[in-house]
Every structure is written in C-alpha cells, then in structure tokens.
Amino acid sequence: IPPLSTFIRELAARSKVHTPSFLCTMVYLDRLRQSLPEFARGMQCTCHRIFLAALIIASKYLNDASPKNTYWARYTSLFSLAEVNLMERQLLELLVSSGIG
C-alpha cells in the first residue's frame, strides 16, 4: 500500500475529480474525525479506504455525473469493486448514524 499522500495524488490524477469534491471530502473527513474517539485505529489501509469512500460520496453528492464505483476500483488499483461498494455503504451508514450526513 502506498503512502496516503501518494494514494491521494494518484487518485486525483486518474479520476480527474474537481476541487469542490476534494473540499467536500475534507469536510466529511474533518467531521468524521471529530465524531470518532481519539484512540480509534484500523488496518494499514484504513485511511486509504476512508478517504476513497469520502471522495466517492462527495463526488456523487456534488456532481450529476460521477464515476461509477467500477471506475473508482480501477483508479485505485488496490481495491475490488465489492470492496469499494462496501466502503461507500459503510461510510454512508457511519455519517448518517453520527448525524454528519
């Protein structure tokens, strides 16, 4: 798994997502961070998964035409379509249950 900064840079280049989607992603991530306990940890790829899911949700929220999850899986070359679908669904559930989304 590449460093998170490399993952984000490559994802931005491959997906060609516009700046507002990245800004919305950052808002989601900041609100999520505030709602999680300080000691929350995960696997090595957890940050990558959360960032990707937040970007997908932001892109779908802001744009009439957003890449399908099949393409997101290809853009990352790390996660399968099933994993991308699961990440998106789980983050949506977390955002809604936390009162964020």
Automatic annotation (TrEMBL):
Keyword Transferase annotated: no
Domain Cyclin-like: from-to ranges: 6-93
Family the UniProt entry places it in: Belongs to the cyclin family.
A Pfam match: Cyclin_N
Keywords: Cyclin
PANTHER family: PHO85 CYCLIN-2-RELATED (PTHR15615:SF10), PTHR15615
CDD domains xrefs: CYCLIN_ScPCL1-like
Stated name of the protein: Cyclin-like domain-containing protein
MF terms in GO: cyclin-dependent protein serine/threonine kinase regulator activity; protein kinase binding
SMART domains, per database record: CYCLIN
GO terms under cellular component: cyclin-dependent protein kinase holoenzyme complex; nucleus
Gene3D superfamilies on file: Cyclin-like (1.10.472.10)
Record has Secreted as a keyword: no
